[in-house]
Amino acid sequence: MLLLGPPGAGKGTQSSNIAEEFDVEHVTTGDALRSNKEMDISEMDTEYDTPGEYMDQGELVPDAVVNAIVEKALTSADGFVLDGYPRNLEQAEQLEDMTDLDVVISLSVGEAELVDRLTGRRVCDDCGANYHVEFNPPEEEGVCDECGGELIHREDDTEQAVRNRLEVFEENTAPVIDHYRERENFVEIDGEQSLEGVWNDIETAIERKA
Ligand code: AP5
Ligand code: ZN
């Protein structure tokens, strides 16, 4: 399964639900890259020497780095939900060589809501669980409900970086969504609903298409 959408659409939140409910692996390039922010990629002849330098500004990490991560993760996964990839047409082409997809889900959310969601997001530093100070607060402020870890504000969730991520999305990733839109297994879901509303639509879509 593939979950597409702009930054802040709820891909991470809902992919975790899918992984749990349908017993598949959650493959997320964002988390994989965050665990490797300091990796030395200078040998690949890239503009910057580490993924982190691209990420903190909201720029895309070079395709060669990301493609290798996804290829490795998909080879070892039985079933999967992919979140954060493909982000441009070149990556979509690579993915086609790696695997087939049963369902492609696109979450649509307007820009003002995306900015509110991302600037208010808090993420567990230990297990990666997602919260929002207003829309999805933890039971105890700053503490993860799942594992007791510390909740942090991502460096690319400042308003400036968020605006840049949205521009990068429009330019590179919106064409990927249009590319899948014509497929029979494509479903567009209104991501501005409540968390439960979005989840209900996703469950229905997967049960129908998969
Ligand atoms: P990545 O981590 O993938 O970030 P993203 O795509 O910008 O997506 P987010 O994680 O910000 O948002 P999300 O859609 O998962 O929303 P979430 O569920 O958290 O990528 C980060 C960086 O890594 C990129 O900028 C790039 O540099 C690099 N990168 C990653 N993949 C790459 C690739 N393939 N190629 C090149 N570079 C790559 O929800 C957001 C907030 O809203 C949360 O607080 C949540 O609680 C809340 N929320 C969710 N749903 C709802 C709802 N229905 N109602 C109210 N609040 C909600
Ligand atoms: Zn946690």
Account of the protein in words:
It contains eight helices and eight strands. By secondary structure, it is of the alpha/beta class. The chain has a single domain (2-209), classed as P-loop containing nucleotide triphosphate hydrolases (Rossmann fold). The protein has a five-stranded parallel β-sheet, sandwiched between helices. It has a three-stranded antiparallel β-sheet with strand order 6-5-7. A hairpin with a 5-residue loop joins strand 5 (121-124) and strand 6 (130-132). Helix 4 runs parallel beside helix 5 and helix 6 (111-119) crosses helix 7. It is globular and about 45 Å long. It starts with a strand and ends with a helix. The mean pLDDT is 95. Zinc ion binds next to loops.
Summarize the structure.
Pathway: Purine metabolism; AMP biosynthesis via salvage pathway; AMP from ADP: step 1/1. The protein is of the alpha/beta class.
In the CATH scheme, the class would be Alpha Beta
Uncertain stretches: none
Task: Please list the strands of the largest sheet in the order they lie side by side.
Answer: 2-3-1-4-8
Looking at the structure, the CATH topology is: Rossmann fold
Number of DSSP E strands: 8
